[in-house]
Amino acid sequence: MDREPGLSVRFKLTLTYAGFLMLSGVLLLAAMWVFVLRHLPAYTNVSGGVLPRSYLLRDFGTAVGAILLFLLAFGLLGGWLLAGRMLAPLTRITHATRTATNGSLSHRIRLPGRADEFRELADAFDTMLARLEAHVAEQRRFAANASHELRTPLAISKTLLDAARTDPDRDTGLLIDRLQSVNTRAIDLTEALLLVSRAEQRSFTRERVDLSLLAEEATETLLPLAEKHGVSIEASGDITPTIGSPALLLQLTMNLVQNAIVHNLPQQGSIWVHTGVRPGTVVLTVENTGDRLTPQLVSTLTAPFQRGTERIHTDHAGVGLGLAIVKTITQAHDGTLTLTPRAAGGIRITVELPAMPRTATADGSRA
């Protein structure tokens, strides 16, 4: 914002300190007048003679003027130095803010000393910068990966079209099938990117959602795919009411179940879907058999375009955003996502969301 120039905070504090010091001096001298000088006798005996009261008051007035001038000079000088010392941390914070505004997010204030208001502000600003730097770096990686993933199907389409142009006798049916497959992958990737963006912006209406019903719908929808690949699904659990977007939470559940299918054993794989209630939260857990995974590998699976192991099937290969979408939707609903490798192989994924607040019914009970 463009603002008109004004007095600096340091100058205002200096005037405040000097004014307070002058006021204290005036009050002290006034108290001396009220309680001491006003009750002086008309004449006072001093060495060498007798002085009338008016002489003493005149000398007192001269002394008062000198004292007030000294207090004013001392207040201005001392206030200026004291204000500068007190505002030094704020100057560092302002410098860091301007540096961050210019695009440098790696700068940190790291204000030394014991805790006070300025240091709490500096620590909070450093924390904000660290999170912002990490978020920007993640967005840049995401954009780079997305560009790479989108470039691949476009490059394949161009190659197929160039080949068809140079070879008119080429089988057009096979070409169309391959172009359709590549185009489908590009559409799936674009829709996944839009879904991630929508979840990150939290641009959705929150409604009452029962995770157990979403888990049931997801398992029923993906059951033919699981049977086709020899994977059994067991669903169980309690009613788990929460607040959120039914469409996004259904997408989250579908992604988890589909991920469990395509990252499973080649034969006789198993999936367990369970919903439960904890104090203040509801939980959705999807667990599956599969290859043994290390904790280091598991910690990277929610990054965009990361794949833990080679999929056992060529269909439903996905675009590498399944768990990234799950993570984004979970965060958008103020929940937590936990990935734990199973000792026997496979992975256990737990989504914990805030439970729906309990409301009072008409008879005064809690529902």
Task: Describe the fold and architecture.
By secondary structure, this protein is an alpha+beta fold. The chain has three domains: 96 residues, no CATH class; 64 residues, Signal transduction histidine kinase, dimerisation/phosphotransfer (DHp) domain (Helix Hairpins, Orthogonal Bundle); 148 residues, Heat Shock Protein 90 (2-Layer Sandwich), CATH 3.30.565.10. 56% of the residues lie in helices and 15% in strands. The strands form three sheets. The chain has a five-stranded mixed sheet, with helices on one face. Strands 1-2 form a two-stranded antiparallel ribbon. A hairpin with a 2-residue loop joins strand 6 and strand 7. Helix 1 packs antiparallel against helix 2 and helix 3 packs antiparallel against helix 4. The chain is elongated, with a radius of gyration of 37 Å. 22% of the residues are buried.
Mean pLDDT: 80
In the CATH scheme, what's the topology name of the largest domain? Answer: Heat Shock Protein 90
What is the structural class? alpha+beta
Sheet with the most strands: spatial strand order = 4-6-7-9-8
Radius of gyration: 37 Å
Biggest sheet, open or closed, and with what strands and sense?
Answer: 5 strands, mixed
Series of H and E elements: HEEHHHEHEEHEEHHEE
- What's the total number of strands? 9
Number of helices: 8
Spans of at least 5 consecutive residues whose pLDDT stays below 50 are: 309-317, 360-367
Going by CATH, the architecture of the largest domain would be 2-Layer Sandwich
Shape: elongated
Distance between the termini: 50 Å
Can you say what the CATH homologous superfamily of the largest domain is? Histidine kinase-like ATPase, C-terminal domain
Q: How many domains is the backbone divided into? A: 3
Helix content: 55-70%
Under the CATH scheme, which class of the largest domain?
Alpha Beta
Q: What fraction of the residues are assigned to beta strands by DSSP? A: 5-15%
